[in-house]
Amino acid sequence: MDNQTNLKPMHCLSRENHISAITIIIVNKETLLTIGDREGNLEIVSLENFRTVWRKELDSSLIAVKTIKEQSCLITHTRSSVVQYWEINKTGLIETKRFQYDYGRLCGLEVTESLIIVPTAEKGKVRILDYGFSEVKTLNVGTESGEIMTIKTIASDTCLIGFETKVIRYNFKLELTESEVLLNDCVMCLCPNKKFNKVICGTAENLSVFNSDEISGKLENKVVIPTNTGISCIDIRQDSKIVACGCWNGRVRVYSAKTLKFLAFLDFHRKTVTGVIFVDAQSTIWRKNLLIVACENGTVSVWDIYN
To answer: Is Ribonucleoprotein among this UniProt entry's keywords (predicted)?
Structure first.
């Protein structure tokens, strides 16, 4: 892979509305791309022929779409604070559960192996729900660092929470902050690299990378990598070799996941990248490791950047 701009996507989808969330779901051994937009449209696209399989109109803008792999179902989170379960079958998208709560901010929910984490309307607090939407507990994770910007799980009982000024490692089973890292600018996204025990943090100005000790729970040795633009989303390939960072300027910056050496940038989109996600080679007919990039201008590009 060279670091020039002559890399081109293998396929591109174009939609009318701002794309706000993407994820991958496997149903009956077929890999499907889920696209959510700011107008409340939820679309399922086949990665075999890139055609729309199902479409659904929700009540408001999508801010998060998650997958429960064991059940092959989707969880959607809208701007109007509605969380819904969706079962996918031959007849389409079937809503099976719904939960309404008083939130209204922009941080999307996060899903663990058995729980759902949602920020509350009350600053610095999150609600822990089970998959049936029964409340397990409400936790005060801190108010002194501003709004909660992003939540990312790293274990069944532990998550990373990004605030405006810092990242904390929070154990919601023990109800305590295990560690924290202060930052100079606002946290936008988080991505744990479990293979190398690191956390990659995208901010409004750069990438910050720090170690995450699984025994002590400490976050330490922060390294700042300048990017000259804000980072909106991050994903690590399944083999933990490369990491893709979507940027405010429309580019995707690609790094070595182990050394964080800059490898390439993908210069295709012209608006903020709103989602990057890797697809394992064994899960599509292409038998290639694909990178899917979503942009706020309604475009989705599919890349094969590894040959």
So the answer is: no
Convert the pLDDT of each residue in 224-271 to its tens digit: 999 989 999 999 998 899 999 999 999 999 999 999 999 999 999 999
CB 190 within 8 A of CB 150: yes
Q: Could you tell me if 144 and 158 are in contact, meaning their C-beta atoms sit under 8 angstroms apart?
A: no
Q: Is residue 267 part of a domain?
A: no
Rounded distance between C-alpha atoms, residue 32 and residue 53, angstroms: 9
Flag whether 300 is in a domain.
no
Q: Which residue has the tokens 């990598």?
A: 225
The answer to whether residue 206 sits within a structural domain is yes
Task: Decide if 44 is inside a domain.
Answer: no
Contact 63, 41 (CB under 8 A): no
Q: What is the pLDDT of residues 137-176, one digit of tens each?
A: 998 888 777 889 999 998 888 999 999 889 999 998 888 9
* Measured CA distances, 214 to 91, 158, 171 (Å): 44, 10, 12
CATH number of the domain to which 166 belongs:
2.40.128.630
* Domain with 127 in it: 107-226
Nearest Cα neighbor of 235 from 276, 186, 289, 176 is: 276
b/e map of 69-92 (b: 16 or more CB within 10 Å)? eeeebbbbbbbebbbbbbbbeeee
